[in-house]
Amino acid sequence: MKQIFCIATFLFTLNTAVANDVSIENPIIRLMPLNAKMTAGYFELSNKSKNEEVLIGAKSNSFKNIEIHESKKDGDVMKMLRRNSVSIKSKSDVKFMPMGLHLMLMNPVKNIDENQEIVITLIFESGKNLDINFLVKNMNEMKIAKMDMENDSQCSDMDMGGMKMGNMMKNMSRPDYAFPVGVKGGKNMMPKKIMFGYKYGNMDMGCCKDSTSTVGQSFIKGLGFTMAPIDMEMDMHMFSAMYAVNNKFTVMSMLPYVKKEMQMQKISGMNTGKLHNTSSTGIGDLSIAGLYKYSGKSTIKLSLSLPTADDDEKDLNMMGALKTLPYPMQIGSGTYDVTLGYSYQNINQDWSYGAQLNFVKRFDYNSEDWKYGDRREASLWVAKPISNFFSFSLGLDAEHQDNIKGKSSQRNNNTPTWNEYYHSHFRVSANIGLNFRLPKSKSRIGLQCGKPIYEDVDGPQMSPDFKCNFGVSTMM
Asked: Quick check: helix, strand or coil at residue 454?
């Protein structure tokens, strides 16, 4: 009989706790993604006494800080406000629930697991301390006061001092939360987090385009050139690091290692038909960027590219003499370049979409008395998760490049790649991509490939046949 009594008492206290005339029912903690820095606690509090009770705080050995918060709607945004206390009048109930009062549980001492019990002490103004066993439950299964958290669209946008909450933590665990790997730049992270990334990009280019048409060697020869480019391949290894200073501002640095190879062919004069290969390799220009979280869905980027790479790469010509390579074969710009960008992403329940704009402005001329033209870029994409770890994306990107300004003192008139007026183009490419989020980690892998579907160029100039990007990132 004693054992039965003990078991019954234990089962009762799992879901209900009583201290004098104050009772707690359904104490639940929302299960959040691995290494999340905050979550929420919900319960129902009843005051059956003749006196008013005032809840003034809470504490737990499992969290470094616990605050009482309340969500209130302000226009289309839910504001999450801190409360110093909550009054429970005599013979009344107060519900701590989504979209209302709740305990904000911050900085867990260690990761919490589903179905784990965590003791939280509720502190009352009267001097009462009530120890409650909270049960950790998956948010997809959590129903409080008949509110299904999974299907409650109101929980998507909560603002806590400018930081979006609600579904933010859930969205971060989705594979399509990260941009397709071919989209440039990054997005804001949780405060004080560091992310390291590596991206490999490959692009094959063939010859040649003029306006919207493909042209051959006879066209190039008719313009007076004695050599024509046949094929060009570029490999780029991009290393990046990001640090989130706070909820609004993230800093980022990127440093590429670039390898370029070009095959040329003699199309007139001595050695007609002979092929010749040139290459250039080296560390590219260092880029330092700042990301500002303009809203829960949009980010503004400002970056500065520093001329850390060579802009006078040389290789042997067909006669065996060491000569400066044409403009497309240079590793760096040799100029200080500023990029202003804007990114937007909207994450729905079953899919997501986004857009990005970038404008690159070149300043001054390099030591060789030339500079690349200004550049404008736009990207659009839609993505759909196909599992908890994989997502699939389709996208378009467009670029408009101006011609080269100035003229290198080392140029020659043998090939169109040395002509400053054969570099402007407008190009639209179609892309397909995959994102993979590694289970139980903060690492992601991405792959995106594409090819041009429309080109209008000042030519003759080389045109991309195919491009691919592969990336890996991890957050600490």
From this structure: strand
Answer yes or no: are the C-beta atoms of 24 and 130 closer than 8 Å. Answer: yes
Cα angle: 184, vertex 450, 397; to 5 degrees: 50
| Alpha carbon distances (Å) from 168 to 29, 40, 159, 191, 347 | 17, 13, 10, 14, 10
Cβ 293 vs Cβ 188: under 8 Å? yes
Q: Range(s) for CATH 2.60.40.1890 in the chain?
A: 2-166
Structure token digits, residue 73: 């709607």
CATH architecture of the domain with range 174-475: Beta Barrel (2.40)
Contacts of 362 (CB under 8 A, 6+ apart): 333, 335, 337, 371, 372, 373, 374, 405
Tokens 């054969």: give the residue: 422
Q: Give pLDDT, residue 71.
A: 86
Q: Which residues contact 6 (CB under 8 A, 6 or more apart)?
A: none
More confident residue, 8 or 147: 8
3-class secondary-structure state, position 194: strand
d(CA 262, CA 17): 76
Continuous segment of H or E residues that includes residue 237 = strand 227-244
pLDDT of 163 higher than 90: no
- pLDDT, position 126: 87
| Per-residue pLDDT at 122 | 94
pLDDT at 210: 94
Pick the closest to residue 443 from 165, 173, 114, 166 (CA basis). Answer: 173
Amino acid in position 217: Q
Helices (H), 16-85: none
2-166, which class in CATH? mainly beta
| Alpha-carbon gap, residue 386 to 392, rounded angstroms | 7
Q: Decide which of 349 and 342 is more confident.
A: 342
Higher pLDDT, 114 or 255: 255
Across the strands, what pairs with 240?
197, 254
**In this model, does residue 18 exceed pLDDT 70?**
no
Phi, psi of 172 (to 5 degrees): -65, -25
> For 23-67, how does the pLDDT look when each residue is reduced to its tens digit (9 = 90+)?
899 999 998 877 778 899 999 999 988 889 999 999 999 999 999
Question: From the CB of residue 87, how many other CB atoms can be counted at a distance below 10 Å?
Answer: 12
Band the pLDDT of 73: cuts 50, 70, 90.
Answer: confident
